[in-house]
Amino acid sequence: MVYSPLSIHTVLSLIAAGARGSTKDQLLSFLNSKSTNELNTLASDLLPHVFINRSPSGGPHLSFANGLWVDKSLTIKPSFKKVVDCSYKATVNQVDFQTKANEARVEVNS
């Protein structure tokens, strides 16, 4: 398994989309971006090209998966879920980290 710069950038952009205050500012600075809207637009423009499977010709195959697991006790804002779904082609999953940590671990790692 290899973690590409693209996947790391995408994950940090996804985190920035839900961050506020100094955390958001630090992520934007690190990603050299002016806004989360800029990052979201980049992701929505770029990720559809990543998901194209060009391996039948014998070339490299890139597998790219993003997901977000949040404790079920937390509320997910609909606007954030929309960004995750539409811009990052990722899923938001609510799990019980507090009382069913092992089951949550299995789900996250599957």
UniProtKB/TrEMBL annotation:
All copies of the Serpin domain together span 1-110
Q: Name one GO cellular component term.
A: extracellular space
Source organism of this protein record: Malus baccata
InterPro entries noted in UniProt: Serpin_dom, Serpin_fam, Serpin_sf, Serpin_sf_1
Give the similarity note: Belongs to the serpin family.
| Superkingdom, taxonomy of origin | Eukaryota
Name of the protein: Serpin domain-containing protein
Q: Name one GO molecular function term.
A: serine-type endopeptidase inhibitor activity
A Pfam family: Serpin
